[in-house]
Design goal:
The protein is of the alpha/beta class and 458 residues long. It starts with a strand and ends in a 5-residue tail after the last strand. Helices cover 32% and strands 22% of the residues. The chain has three domains: 2-123, Methylthiotransferase, N-terminal domain (Rossmann fold, 3-Layer(aba) Sandwich); 155-384, pyruvate-formate lyase- activating enzyme (Alpha-Beta Horseshoe), CATH 3.80.30; 390-453, OB fold (Dihydrolipoamide Acetyltransferase, E2P) (Beta Barrel), CATH 2.40.50. Helix 12 runs parallel beside helix 13. The structure holds 5'-deoxyadenosine and iron/sulfur cluster. Iron/sulfur cluster is lined by residues 164, 166-168, 171, 173-174, 208-209, 246. The site of 5'-deoxyadenosine has 12 residues, from strand 13.
Length: 458
Amino acid sequence: MKFNVLTYGCQMNVHDSDWLIRAMESRGWKAVEESEANIFILNTCSVRDKPEQKVYNVLRRLGYLCTSPGDFVAVGGCVAQQIGEGFLERFPYVRLVFGSDGIVQAPQYLEELAVDHEKRLVLNDFLAQYPEREGGLANPNEELLPPGIGTIPGQAFVNIMQGCDNFCAYCIVPYTRGRQKSRLSSAIIDECRALVKSGVREITLLGQNVNSFGMDKNGSDLSFAQLLYKIAEIEGLERVRFTTSHPKDIAPEVIKAFGELPNLCPHLHLPVQSGSDNILKKMGRKYDRARYLGIVEGLKEVCPEIALTTDIIVGFPGETDEDFEQTMDIMERVRFESSFSFKYSDRPGVAALKMMPKVPEDVAQKRLTRLQERQKHITRECLEELDGNDMIVLLERNSKWQEDGGVAWRGKDPGGRVVNIFIEGIEGHLPLGGKLVKAKIIEAKNHSLVGVKVGDLW
Ligand code: 5AD
Ligand code: SF4
């Protein structure tokens, strides 16, 4: 069967789609361009804006591509969890809906639906335990692909937990992804070991709130800090990262790890959401600006070069000019290297829906523009400070910029920054993705760095 996967949303969704592609390919299906596909898998996100509308628009478009009786669409992810049956009722060519936990069974049902053209179903039940996924990759006719290998050579994402128990006032995630479920630490460590053995050099541990790993009732024998130390000591693993972290749960041992573990990358994405105590309280974030700044100080003490990035919401209900100034102020104090910033958007069922007064759209937009403008300058200044430094870059793919006499490669430094490096005397087709190289930074651009190779590739 020829299939195409379209993904919206966060890293978790990207990773889910990646797993699904591999699971189907190991069953003999072929991932192809949309125009060649018979089966379309749409992985959706509902965290902001009007995602439902966007999904309906995409579904209408895919409807025109379902021309034979065997062609159909499967809708997965957070909007699927929210709308469920509704998709089957509105769109005759949607024949499978699967939510956060249902994805584990999706490969098996996709195969059944490809044969039985009458069948339609919804897989939206939440499971009590973390749903393990290895089963989807077993294929007696082919080499077993290690689970979780990303599309970037040498890098992999490993899920350590699913769901969230925090119920921040603006957030739909606890409703769409369900309660927090930690995965067994032994399964995580085994997966990481297998990945490193197969050539992976950088692992990113994934979860909605990785710092509360093991704190749910499915609890694990290890804390997140203990898990991190165990993974970092896997021989041959060059880099470890993790995302996302909630400031209220980050343990002193995790902060300490940034000073102790040589392969823990000096980068932390630590969503602050707001710099105002008043708004943080209304958001139900359970930390204040003093605590957040204390964490930042602790991190910079043990790891002065750490790159901090964040998420910020402007225009949360009741946000005053003074509250917003506090957010601008925390940006100056922390000097985030980059940030994702959003206007607050009402989501169904969340506590903030009923909070008043709502901030007018034009006020929220003005605040967002000002914040993003300031961020642009800080990002630029942070990158300029790195000019002249040597850093190790993990190569990913050919960069867009090319010249004669060699090939430019794009990779990432340990801080997670994009570095473009021109490597003289090599051919474009050489498989350098996944290789490490020492580079000297010679220029800072708005969002990336330019380097030259100063050491051997390994
Ligand atoms: N409105 C705006 N931004 C939101 N986020 C989550 N929910 C909302 C919402 N209702 C943002 C938060 C979160 C990121 C993934 O999306 O900043 O960290
Ligand atoms: Fe949403 Fe808060 Fe959970 Fe993050 S920690 S997923 S913002 S509820």
